[in-house]
Design goal:
Organism (chain A): Actinocorallia aurantiaca
Radius of gyration of chain A: 20 Å
Strand order of the largest sheet of chain B: 1-2-4-3-7-8-9-10-11-12
Number of domains of chain A: 1
Structural class of chain A: mainly alpha
Strand content of chain A: under 5%
Helix content of chain B: 25-40%
Helix content of chain A: 55-70%
Strand order of the largest sheet of chain A: 1-2
Number of strands of chain B: 35
Order of helices and strands of chain A: HHHHHHEEHHHH
Radius of gyration of chain B: 47 Å
Keywords (chain A): Membrane, Transmembrane, Transmembrane helix
Number of helices of chain B: 20
Largest sheet of chain B: 10 strands, mixed
Oligomer: heterodimer
Largest interface: A-B, 72 and 70 residues
Distance between the termini of chain A: 30 Å
Shape of chain A: globular
Protein name (chain A): ABC transporter permease
Pfam family, one (chain A): ABC2_membrane_2
């Protein structure tokens, strides 16, 4: 006999939700929308002369996947991760099913642990689904060749998978802080919208503060400071510094936020 | 014209301030300085008296300190070095800055760092330093002294150290080894730079300005004809370390990678001529502009002096060879970073490791009449357009028909070139050519690897040495050597000519594989912060309460429910349950009766472990109830309405709920429970969100009955049921209790309780107000009357 609320049960409970379907559907559709956009827009470099991933997006499937990830990291993936982690407990409270789970009885810490594991699992799948579909779409439409770096060089396709793995892996870790905040809010509030919106709102505020250059080095403490550090993996020699700092910051915030979530839920009066 | 003037102004600015200095904040210790005029005697016959305008900066915090002489760049004055001087004074050095003869408020005329003039001046400045009480002496008249300066000031540092053994360490930057080779490389006149150099000091009254007449006449002659003369070459060589005695003082040579005036090969010659310790630094800037790396260079300079002048311990000496490179883009601000690659040995410029075959064949190339239009490679000041030249994409111009190009195969791996690539070329007649190196990307775009051109004169067969650089060619890219007949920065033959040019060798490519850039270390907090977070998390999650001894009470193991002194006050101060005690025996159907707000639901929530009681305790079969208590498995509950996942069907909801309890599937008694729900198979297969209120109600009661729990708690079970269903429900509950199980029904409906229950607990305003068998409490009257009386009398 397994413990209460096995992961498989929780996964099935969440899977057939419209929310899950729509989120994955959108993430799997987005690369094709971008493909169409690039096809309609034709070629032509940026007017401002700066080189970016957008300029080289159509050079290969790998480049297209990178571009898709680049335009999604700042907001789309944040919303997706916040959705899976912020909704998980709050929606149960909203449906009143939470109290029956607790009285089943599922011990509170175990309930949170299992729900968190499943939510993180779905969030991970979502973060993986996007670049994988983009890679598929990009390769079918733009072909398979070396990565063209926006700084001018190229990177051999054979070893590009390693870099892609680093990039996606870092993206996952850097989203951990969003996941943790959404999860904490999900435990504190009974409103799924509040939990998801709160986490996304914090990311927006962090991004705004990041633009305040007067804050100087204090900005290195902002949770979104190193969101794009994975671009360092696109340089001929990987520069780990930004990614290490970003991962450390994300893990630090996440550990504390998760602990707060468990502590709050442990002593909470469930009245929903 | 205006464009050129602006470019020229920018370049002179660089000449003057190339060494750079840091602005200091005001809260640092004040530096005492003293403006002095030092009388010196110089000239070939030592008969010319000149007063030099100088400033002496006293060392901060030391009685006797080593001295550092900071020389300024061409066009500057002693004030150009004021910032650097203050900084060194605060580091404990006595610092002397001065305006060289012909500059600032010093007297005399510019002799281009001639051994007869400027060198004699600086040697007398060293004499002057030896007299200062603040300056530490190595011997009588021999102060401990170092010299540093950019460009013109770098050359005087080298020349003074060459002619005067008292100089103990020097840091010359962006300067020349052979001034004639710098202004007339390979006998080709570098007209643009030379023009800026010699006309920049004109005060407007005469063309020669403050130059020594002989120097000025030399320049005018060469500029007029575009052909260097032997006299000019000799005069410029006079002012060059190339013909001076070798320098024995430790020498830190800093040269710019964006420098078409004094390219890297000048520092290479200086390094090879030196007899003392030498370190070479190639930084990103130079006379053409670019990233100045002020902080890094100031740090290297003070390290050098700290070690060689101050004998300070624990100083990491700059390694033998440092090359700064465009590093990664900082993802936080999109800015390109600069990283320093270092090696323990300086390999020189011709450390060729491989030869790449060149394609191109014989090409006919035109030299246009008058040398115009000219190709453009470097322009003074133009390097500043792209802050890091090695990024490529730099602006350049080649005139069609005026150049031969030879290209390698695409590279199968990335190739870093460090030094001067070279090839052998054949021409059918004497040709003046300008050699440049291009980076050709796979799509055919070509960009100058560095905006530098090396002039070369070839008659027959000869070597072409390309400008020294440090540059990485990506995999798949090709190297292209372009030999152009013209270059905007140089004089080239005016006669229209056609050359036949061919490459007779491959391109030999030098490298410095020992150069390595240490990976930048992340700050320490990246390791500490997660550890601290884990500690904080552990602190937050310390168990609040140890499991108590009396969690199980043997005596009441057969009592389905016993509540004692139960109290709950909500955070807003509302006392929902106040000292409630009652017990329920096996086989009973207990009615919990009370108006809305009586505390029934709060009591049931505490019973389910959802709410923490403030006082009292609840025991189910002797086990204390708390959140997630295992004994809750013996409780089936339906409180305050159903709770289902709306997207799942009724059957899936029940099945997943049972699986969530973690109990064996065989124990669920699913079919019996579903019988109570009285839902059709079709309804059970639909998502719950399509259900009516009554259907959900029945499904929820069925869920509570899953596994046939020993204690069943139902809150308002008949809400939303129609009369036949209510009747049916009553029968179900009575039958359920008859099997030895226990049922608690909470309701505000008197008739409900009266018809279903055999015992009743009445609650009002959080308190228990009556408890007993229904028949006893009713006593022949209607329960309603009794109920109203009870709660009314306590009101």
């Amino acid at each position: 006999m397994s413990g209460p609320l096995p992961l498989k049960v929780e996964a099935v409970r969440q899977f057939r939700r419209r929310r899950t379907m729509v989120a994955f559907g959108f993430l799997l559709l987005l690369p094709w929308i971008l493909v169409i956009a690039f096809q309609l827009g034709g070629g032509g470099p940026d007017e401002d002369g700066r080189m970016s991933l957008a300029d080289v997006a159509t050079t290969s499937g790998l480049n297209f996947a990178l571009f898709t990830l680049f335009v999604s990291t700042g907001f789309l993936l944040v919303v997706t991760v916040a959705l899976f982690c912020g909704d998980t407990v709050a929606s149960e409270a909203g449906w009143s099913s939470l109290r029956y789970l607790l009285a089943a009885p599922v011990p509170r810490a175990r309930l949170l642990r299992q729900k968190l594991a499943v939510a993180l699992g779905y969030a991970t799948a979502a973060v993986l689904a996007l670049p994988l579909m983009a890679l598929l779409a990009g390769t079918l439409v733009f072909g398979w060749s070396d990565i063209t770096l926006p700084t001018g060089g190229t990177y051999p396709a054979e070893s590009a998978f390693g870099r892609m793995a680093i990039i996606v892996g870092y993206s996952l870790v850097s989203q951990l802080v969003v996941a943790a905040l959404a999860f904490l809010l999900s435990v504190v509030t009974d409103s799924p919208l509040g939990a998801v919106g709160g986490a996304v709102g914090l990311v927006i505020i962090s991004n705004i503060l990041d633009a305040v250059t007067a804050l100087g080095d204090w900005r290195d403490l902002l949770p979104t400071r190193f969101t794009y550090a994975w671009l360092d993996a696109l340089q001929p020699d990987i520069s780990w510094n930004g990614m290490i700092q970003g991962a450390s910051l994300s893990v630090t915030y996440a550990v504390v936020l998760f602990a707060l979530a468990f502590r709050h839920f442990r002593g909470k009066d469930v009245t929903s | 014209m205006r464009g050129r003037w602006v470019a020229g102004a920018a370049a002179v600015g660089v000449l003057a301030a190339g060494g750079g200095f840091v602005l200091l904040s005001d809260d640092e210790p004040p530096v005492r300085r003293e403006a002095v005029r030092v009388e010196v005697v110089d000239g070939p016959k030592d008969d010319q008296k000149v007063a030099l305008d100088a400033t002496f900066y006293k060392p901060v915090g030391v009685e006797k300190a080593p001295a550092v002489m900071l020389a300024h760049g061409f066009g500057g004055s002693k004030e150009s070095q004021a910032g650097a001087a203050v900084k060194l004074a605060r580091q404990g050095y006595a610092v002397l800055t001065w305006s060289a003869r012909g500059f600032g408020r010093s007297e005399g005329e510019i002799a281009l760092n001639s051994p007869d003039y400027e060198v004699k001046d600086t040697r007398q400045l060293i004499d002057w330093l030896a007299e200062r009480p603040e300056v530490r002496l190595d011997g009588t008249g021999d102060p401990r002294v170092g010299m540093a300066g950019p460009s013109y000031g770098g050359a005087i540092s080298l020349l003074t150290a060459a002619y005067d053994g008292r100089v103990d360490a020097i840091v010359p930057s962006i300067t020349w080894h052979d001034l004639s080779q710098s202004l007339m490389p390979q006998g080709v006149f570098k007209k643009l730079w030379a023009g800026l150099f010699f006309t920049g000091e004109s005060d407007g009254s005469t063309a020669c300005g403050r130059f020594l007449p002989a120097v000025c006449e030399m320049y005018q002659e060469v500029a007029r004809t575009g052909r260097p003369t032997d006299e000019a070459r000799d005069l410029l060589r006079e002012s060059s370390p190339a013909i001076a005695p070798p320098v024995r003082a430790p020498m830190l040579l800093i040269q710019g990678q964006s420098d078409s005036l004094f390219p890297l090969d000048q520092a290479d010659h200086n390094a090879r001529a030196a007899k003392g310790p030498v370190s070479v630094v190639w930084y990103q800037g130079g006379h053409d502009g670019g990233e100045q790396e002020t902080e890094r260079l100031a740090g290297l300079t003070s390290d050098w002096f700290d070690h060689y002048l101050n004998n300070e311990k624990g100083i990491t000496l700059p390694p033998a060879f440092t090359v700064t490179r465009a590093g990664g883009v900082d993802s936080r601000n999109g800015r390109q970073s600069v990283v320093a690659a270092t090696a323990d040995a300086y390999p020189g410029l011709e450390n060729a490791t491989r030869e790449l075959p060149l394609e191109g064949g014989q090409q006919a190339v035109q030299n246009p009449a008058g040398g115009v239009p000219a190709s453009i490679s470097a322009l003074p000041g133009l390097g500043a357009l792209s802050s890091l030249g090695s990024l490529g994409g730099a602006f350049s111009l080649d005139m069609s028909g005026q150049n031969a190009s030879f290209t390698t195969e695409p590279l199968d791996t990335a190739l870093r070139v460090t030094g001067s690539p070279a090839l052998r070329v054949k021409t059918d007649r004497e040709a003046t050519l300008f050699a440049k190196l291009y980076d050709v990307s796979p799509d055919g775009r070509a960009a100058l690897a560095r905006r530098l051109a090396a002039p070369v004169k070839i008659d027959g067969e000869g070597d072409v040495v390309l400008p020294a650089l440090d540059y990485e060619f990506s995999r798949g890219h090709r190297l292209r050597v372009v030999l152009s007949t013209t270059d905007y920065g140089f004089s080239s033959p005016a006669e229209p000519l056609t050359y036949e040019i061919s490459a007779v060798s491959g391109l030999s490519v030098p490298s410095a594989p020992s150069l390595s850039a240490p990976a930048p270390r992340p700050p320490v907090w990246v390791w500490i912060a997660p550890a601290v977070a884990l500690a904080v998390a552990a602190g937050l999650l310390v168990p609040r309460r140890r499991r108590r001894q009396d969690d199980f009470d043997e005596a009441s193991a057969e009592v389905p429910l016993r509540i004692e002194g139960l109290t709950k006050t909500y955070r807003n101060g509302y006392k929902a349950v106040d000292d409630v005690s009652f017990r329920v025996e096996k086989g009973q159907v207990l009615g919990l009766l009370g108006p809305n707000g009586a505390g029934k639901t709060t009591t049931l929530r505490m019973l389910m472990g959802l709410i923490h009681p403030d006082g009292g305790e609840i025991r189910i079969f002797g086990h204390r109830v708390g959140p997630g208590a295992p004994v809750l498995a013996r409780l089936g509950s339906f409180v305050e309405g159903p709770g289902f996942l709306p997207h799942l069907s009724g059957r899936d909801n029940l099945e997943l709920y049972w699986r969530a309890t973690g109990r064996p599937a065989g124990d669920s008694r699913m079919e019996e429970a579903l019988e109570v729900a009285a839902l059709t198979d079709e309804a059970l297969a639909r998502p719950v969100r399509t259900y009516s209120q009554g259907m959900r109600q029945r499904l929820a009661i069925a869920q509570a009955m899953l596994g046939l729990p020993d204690l069943l708690v139902l809150d308002e079970p008949t809400n939303g049921l129609d009369p036949p269903q209510i009747r049916q429900m009553r029968e179900v509950l009575v039958r359920y209790a008859e099997a030895g199980r226990t049922v608690i029904v909470s309701s505000h409906l008197l008739s409900e309780v009266e018809q279903t229950c055999d015992r009743v607990v009445v609650m009002a305003r959080g308190r228990k107000v009556a408890d007993g068998p229904v028949a006893e409490i009713v006593g022949g009257r209607g329960l309603e009357d009794v109920f109203l009386e009870i709660i009314g009398s306590r009101a």
